[in-house]
Amino acid sequence: MAASRRRPKAQTESAPAQAVSSEELLHYYREMLLIRRFEEKAGQLYGMGLIGGFCHLYIGQEAVVVGIQSALNEGDSVITSYRDHGHMLACGMDAKGVMAELTGRRGGYSHGKGGSMHMFSREKNFYGGHGIVGGQVPLGTGLAFAHKYLKDGGISAVYCGDGAINQGQVYESFNMAALWKLPVLFVIENNKYAMGTSQERASAGELHQRGASYGIPGYQVNGMDVLEVKAAADQWVNYIREGNGPVILEMKTYRYRGHSMSDPAKYRTKEEVEKMRSESDPIDQLKAKLLAGGHADEDKLKEIDREVKAIVIESAEFAQQSPEPDASELWTDVLL
Amino acid sequence: MPIEVLMPALSPTMTEGKLAKWLKKEGDSVKSGEVLAEIETDKATMEVEAVDEGRIGKILIAEGTDNVAVNTPIAVLLEEGEDASALTAAPAPAPAPAPVAAPVAAPVAVEAPVSAPTVPAAPVAEADAEEEKFFAKTTKRTVREALRDAMAEEMRRDDKVFVMGEEVAQYQGAYKVTQGLLQEFGDARVIDTPITEIGFAGLGVGASFKGLRPVVEFMTFNFAMQAIDHIINSAAKTLYMSGGQMGSPIVFRGPNGAAARVGAQHSQCYASWYAHCPGLKVIAPWSAADAKGLLKAAIRDPNPVVFLENEILYGQSFEVPDDEEFVLPIGKAKIERKGKDVTITAFSIMVGHALAAAEILAQEGIDAEVINLRTIRPLDTATIVNSVKKTNRLVSVEEGWPFAGIGSEMAALMMEEAFDYLDAPVIRVAGVDVPMPYAANLEKLALPQVDDIVKAAKRACYR
Question: Phi, psi (5° rounding) for residue B399?
Answer without folding.
Answer: -85, -25
